[in-house]
Amino acid sequence: METISISGNWRLSPYDKAECALSTPYFEEHAFLPYNNSNSIYTTLSSMADEEELEKLRKLKWVIEREFDFNNDESQRSVLLTHNALSAEINGCIAEGTEITGLLKDGQNTIRLIVTSSFFSEVEILRSHDGVGYSAHLKAMKDGKVWHVTAYLDYEAFRRHERLVRLSLLGQSTEKRITFEEKRSRYTIDIEIPEEKAELWCIHGDGKQIMYNALIEVGNARLERRIAFRTIEVRNGALFVNGRETFVMGAVWPNMVTSDQKRYDIFLQSAAWANMNCLYIEDGHESHDFYNTCDRLGLIVLHNQEYEEFTFHPSFVSGEIKADVFKAKVREGDGYFGLCQDAIELERWTLKTRSDNANHGVIYSNLLSTVREDGTWRPSHYAARRFFADLVPIMFIEDDKLMIYISNDGDKEEDVELSIKFMTYSGLKRNKRMYSAKVASHTAQKVQEIDLRQTDRKNEFLYIKLRTFKIHRELTLLLDEISECAYEIPKIDTKLRMVNPRSYSIRLSTNKPAFAVHLVMEGTRGNFSDSFFEVRPEGEKSVIFSSEEDLGEEDVKERLKIFDLASSLKK
User: Fold this and answer.
1) For residues 236 and 254, what is the distance between their CA atoms, to the nearest angstrom?
2) Per residue in 470-489, pLDDT tens?
3) CA-closest candidate to residue 518, choices 383, 427, 333, 389
4) Residue 94 forms beta bridges with which residues?
5) Spatial distance between the Cα atoms of 12 and 66, rounded to a whole number of angstroms
6) Rounded-to-integer distance, Cα 119 and Cα 84, Å
7) pTM (2 decimals)?
8) Which of 111, 126, 420, 443 has the fewest CB within 10 Å, making it most exposed?
9) For 92-112, what is the HEC assignment?
């Protein structure tokens, strides 16, 4: 069997230009829009249409076309075209089915496909004497102490014939002689893998993302596919991965993200960096490159609809999702205080949610609430990294009592030391309390309650330090409304050191407690190792800025802007 890919660059135009003109004038001024079929049509259209236009354009039919070369020397072979289009034409002739042997010519050929806005499929020409396997995927189901693995092979036979089919996985193999009928059909072959031979694929933050290569052989043809072993289900509004309840932490995936591999890497790696473990697609689906990247990063993708084509991806979870999660809404606009205040409020809400067994997760209303379209991170993204961490102290006020929990969403028990200091906004220490706890995996354990009725909540805040053998984490808790606290304006100083021409170390010190400190490098694409934190007078904070361009020290001094909560409120 020979495979000829004709994926790549196409010309995209509307099927009905008059109908399309009611939504956008673009195609009256341009003959076509460049299109790469690793993206969906919808995503490509987002580069030239606004949100209102996109809503209308996604309902239309579209034409994609391109030229490709074909060597017809072996014309005795049967030739099959695979695609997910509504219809296809080769050299101006309609392809009635997938068989296109008589429509091709030696040399340059033209293909034209009629598609919907969700189209993004690979387009391939397959040729063989007997038939072709044009799709294969594997599913693993746990049955006691054995994984039952089924390989699904979609095969189109050009004539009735027999083949020996072999499935090999983890040092084991099984064979099955299959009679292929002269049509397109789905065939299966099974193998059993003892549970001790297969390591589990784990969600981000709960272990490794283990994938195994499987080989399907049909006669002399070989198909390699990846498989993961894991169980996922939703029980009583909670997500269970590999039998353990998992607190959902993530965001709604935005449709407008350009779906090329580089952009996937930018946005999905940003989600993983912020300790997210889940993305939610409200309608539709993405490309295989998207799910491959999520598989690698351990990001579960929740959908409301079943899409059989993607079910072999370990990250893909379909069906009507009824997990009880809070959808966190971040305010519109880039004003620092608005976004900063949202980050603080979301941190408070999320941490409290993690102590409440009635709630099973928090997702941002849109990933672009935390990551700008150019890939730079907003204050809420840095904040998400703090309150989505596996091990965090949880503090909130309820009926004049400070409730203290420790949440552990990691994969092992932790011995934790927790210190709490009551401090004034001028930097004076009021008192300090120490607690020790042994916190089991996947639990939120209550540590203590503290009566706050005698506390001057307007003039005091809490400084919290969590320590384990490997982890040192610091947070603060404001005891009154954000706008009512008696802040003192801090004077924040910086020291710069070049790490390399594209990276700078920035050390910050202050004379007064500084809250929700956020750094911006104006006019420069890049991100900080942290950019939503507190700085105390008795300590320093060190961060790294990594840029996409070379920067001199004077550039950094000129472009670096530092915001903090007290200063922003006083303006």
Assistant:
1) 27
2) 888 888 889 988 888 999 99
3) 383
4) 89
5) 9
6) 7
7) 0.77
8) 443
9) CEECCCCECHHHCCCEEEEEE
